[in-house]
Amino acid sequence: MAVRLRVTELTITAPDPRALARFYARLLGRPVTTEEGPAPGEPPEAGWAQIKAPEGSGEITLNFEWERRWRRPRWPAEPGAPFATQHLDFQVTDLDAAVAHALEAGATLAPVQPQENVRVLFDPAGHPFCLFL
After folding, report:
1. Among 11, 62, 76, 132, whose CB has the most other CB atoms within 10 angstroms?
2. What is the set of domains in the chain, with CATH numbers?
3. At 100, phi and psi to the nearest 5?
4. Does the pTM of the predicted model rise above 0.85?
C-alpha cells in the first residue's frame, strides 16, 4: 500500500510570531485565524499564530511560532552567519505591483536580485521570500 503525504501547513519561527503573522496577513489579504499569547514565564512577544488557507484553495496554512534563540538569517548566506534554510515563493501576475504591495505591507527589498523575473524580499523578521512571474 502506497503512503500518500500532502503538505498542508508550514511553520515559520520568529522572534515575534504574532507580529509576523499580521505581516503575512496584510501581504496575502487573509485574516490571522488563530493567535495565542506567551506561555507563563515567556516574554510578551512569545506565542503562536496561524493564517489558515482559504477552504478549497489548495494553498497551505501558515503557522508562526516563537523561537527563543532567534537570529536573523543572512541572504545571500555569509560564512559564520545564520542562513535561511528555506523560503516562501509567491507567484504573481504583476511583479512591480506585487513588490509595491509587499513593501507597503512591511517587507524590504533585498539588495541582491539574482533573476530578472523574480524579486527577493525580506519579511520583518528577516526571512527571505520571493515574488515571481
Report:
1. 62
2. 1-70 (3.30.720.120), 71-133 (3.10.180.10)
3. -60, -45
4. yes
